[in-house]
Each structure stands twice: as C-alpha cells, then as structure tokens.
Amino acid sequence: MNSAAWIEKADKYIMKTYGRYPLVPVKGEGCYVWDADGKKYLDFLAGVAVNNLGHCHPAVTAALSKQAHELIHCSNYYHIPQQIELAELLCSHSFADKAFFCNSGAEANEAAIKLARRYSREKHGSDRYEIITALSSFHGRTMATVSATGQEKVQKFFDPLLHGFRHVPFNDAAALREAISPCTCAIMLEPIQGEGGVVVPDASYFQEVRKICDENGLLLIFDEVQVGMGRTGKLFAYEHFGVTPDIMTLAKALAGGAPIGTMLATDEIAQAFVPGTHGSTFGGNPLVTAAGIATVNTILSEGILNRCEEIGEYLMGELEALKGRFPIIADVRGIGLMIGVELNAPGGDIVKKALERGLLLNCAQEKVLRFVPPLIVGKKEVDEMLATLTDILEEMK
Ligand SMILES: *Cc1c(COP(=O)(O)O)cnc(C)c1O
C-alpha cells in the first residue's frame, strides 16, 4: 500500500488527536527513515528525542529479538532480572538508589507525584500535598500530569483539573519562593523545557531552587523525560547544573524506542512506596527492560556522550552563523543535541518545506524549530540538514 492509501485509511479509523504530517515511515536505519513510497528522509526529530541511538541500532534490535524468544512478559508479582539490571545501571550512574518502572513519561511523572505526596504526608502530615511546577512546562497527558503542565492549551475543557498544583514562571527563583505555602510538598521542573520551546535556565537557577527546597523541606523532582539519556551530552541533564534532585523521571529514549518510563528516587523517599501503593501491569517487563539495558550500555560505552557534545557545538555554531544571514532567526539556544532556534514568525512552513525535501524537523510553541536528532548524527548529516534549511530560508527571504 502506498502513502496516500494509508493516509486515507487513517482518516477513517484513527482518532484525530494529532495534527499529523502526510508521511508514512515504514523503515529506519541510523539517522534516516523511508516512507511507504520508498522516499528517504533525514531524521532530525528522532521520534521526538526517542531514537537517541538512531533507528534500529543493532544493539537494541539484537536485545529485543533475543528477549522476544526467551520471555516477553510475566508480571510484577515476580522478580524480573532485566528490570533489576536496568535499575542497577541507572542508579549506579545517578543520584538515585531505587527505581520504579512504567510505560511512558506521563506515567513516570504520575508515579513521582504519588511518591512525593505519600512521602510528604507520612513525614509532615496530611496538609502537605501541593506541587509547584513551571509555566510553559510539559509533563504529560494524563489527568494528573495535565494538571501539572503549565499550559492552558493542554488543559482546556478537561477541567475540573486535579487539585494541588501551582504554576510559576520558569527560571524565576523569586517567584518560586513566593509560591510556597504550608501545603507545598515538592517542586517539579524540567531541567530544560522541551515542549515549552527549548528553554535553558540560567546556570544559577537550579542552585537556588535546590536551596529553596532544602530550606523548606520540599522535594525536588526533575522531569528528564526528554532531556535525559545523553541528549545534552551528559547522561542526565541535571549534571550540568551542579545539583541533584530527590526524584527524577525518565522515558522517551530510555529503551531505544520500546515504550518505557521510570521514576528514580533516593532510598529515604522510595520507602514511602510499600507493597500495594503503586503499580503497572507492563511496567518494566522483560522485553522493554532488555532494550533499556542495551540502550544505556551503548550510550555509555561508545563515546556517544562526547560525540553528542562535539556535534552539538558544531551544529549550534552553524545555526548561529545562519542567524547572522537570516533575520527570521531571533535566537539559537540549547545544550548538546537539544537545540532550539526561535523565529520571528511561525515555523510551520519551514517544517512543511523540509518534509517535502526529505528532512524531518519539528516546531515547538509555533515559533521554535527544535533540533533533537539521533545522538549518533555525524558532521555529514548535520551539513546535509543545514544545506536543506539554508535553501528553504533563502527561498522564503
Ligand atoms: C514527552 C514528555 C512527557 C510525556 O511523555 P509520554 O511518554 O508522552 O507520556 C513528559 N515530560 C516531558 C518533559 C516530555 O518531554
């Protein structure tokens, strides 16, 4: 079946929750995907920061195939070796002592919200439940994470929202301090806002946030669903800011494209989850955690973090140079291969033109081109992307 036929069938059977582009990818390898008509695309979206190792990385594909032949699913009533091993890997490379596994970023944040509330209630009493989050944040699409998300467009017509969230401007420690009440139990933030338009806070912001948490007995939750797993050139983005959270969530790139989420915490906080308090049928099953182990080991072992930093700097430099040539570019920002180009006009047309020319790009908040390519991207692919982008900007001049 060709792309047009698939799109016609999608119109008939698929709910319209996404504004989908007219693209039907059916095969991927490294930084490239092919559509149902055989056309090749350079992928600078990577499934929205999921395919950090590129498409069908041999280590991930091998782990999935091997595990699929041994045991796909059992139950969290039993101990799961792959889950245990992935937890050990993540804890030994982070601040955390223990992991809980689920299936997505939103679920990881749900788990974080539940753990923060349970821990705070147990420790401080029944009126400690409120969580402060940032405006322009994104934490997921479940009811609790929609309530946590600081964007009206995500919440519209889904009210009544979950009680107990308060939103403040991002990168504004004074506003945070001001918002604290006797009910506050935690502060939940993305180290770099992704959907919010690749917003990088000042270097001192998180130091101040950590201090505010410590002074007030609040938990600091980092949502690293998008920026974790090497995206910024370090395994976790918090490593850039010289602070550690109490709870951290991961998902997107954690298992090379297999659906997974995890919530990590220190021992002291994790003990608030006792048997029967939280769970997930599929969470951390043998198949996805086998893919997770392969993904984390590959990210750590093949120089991918250094390469991400190097290529990220190169890409940032080249985009800065474009800013000098094209007045539509207002700002270039980011860390590693999490890069945003803010435009003076909506970016939808650029994304459409890029697609026609075989380049997958994304635009966040209507005006921010978001570059989150696979971390294995080379200078050759970056140059190919830049040539296409330059052509498009010339044409629109
Ligand atoms: C994508 C994302 C989520 C939601 O993850 P899902 O897997 O779609 O539920 C949560 N937080 C951040 C920062 C994200 O980028």
Overall description:
- The protein is α/β, with parallel strands linked by helices.
- The chain folds into 2 domains: 3-57 and 303-395, Aspartate Aminotransferase, domain 1 (Alpha-Beta Complex), CATH 3.90.1150.10; 59-301, Type I PLP-dependent aspartate aminotransferase-like (Major domain) (Aspartate Aminotransferase, domain 2, 3-Layer(aba) Sandwich), CATH 3.40.640.10.
- The chain is 40% helix and 17% strand.
- Helix 3 runs antiparallel to helix 11.
- The longest helix is centred in the last third of the chain and has 22 residues, at 304-325.
- The two termini are 38 Å apart.
- 46% of the residues are buried.
- The mean pLDDT is 97.
- The site of pyridoxal-5'-phosphate has 15 residues, from helix 5.
Blueprint of the fold:
Blueprint: H1 3-13, E1 25-29, E2 32-35, E3 40-43, H2 46-49, H3 58-70, H4 81-92, E4 98-102, H5 105-124, E5 130-134, H6 143-148, H7 152-155, E6 165-168, H8 173-179, E7 184-189, H9 205-216, E8 219-223, E9 247-250, E10 261-265, H10 267-270, H11 286-301, H12 304-325, E11 329-335, E12 338-343, H13 348-356, E13 359-360, E14 362-364, E15 368-371, H14 379-396
Parallel strand pairs: 3-13, 5-6, 5-7, 7-8, 8-9
Antiparallel strand pairs: 1-2, 2-3, 4-10, 9-10, 11-12, 12-15, 14-15
Helix pairs in contact: 3-11, 4-11, 12-14
The site of pyridoxal-5'-phosphate (PLP) has 15 residues, from helix 5.
Distance between the termini: 38 Å
Strand order of the largest sheet: 4-10-9-8-7-5-6
Largest sheet: 7 strands, mixed
Quote the average pLDDT.
97
Q: Are any ligands bound, and if so which?
A: pyridoxal-5'-phosphate
Total individual domains: 2
CATH architecture of the largest domain: 3-Layer(aba) Sandwich
CATH secondary-structure class of the largest domain: Alpha Beta
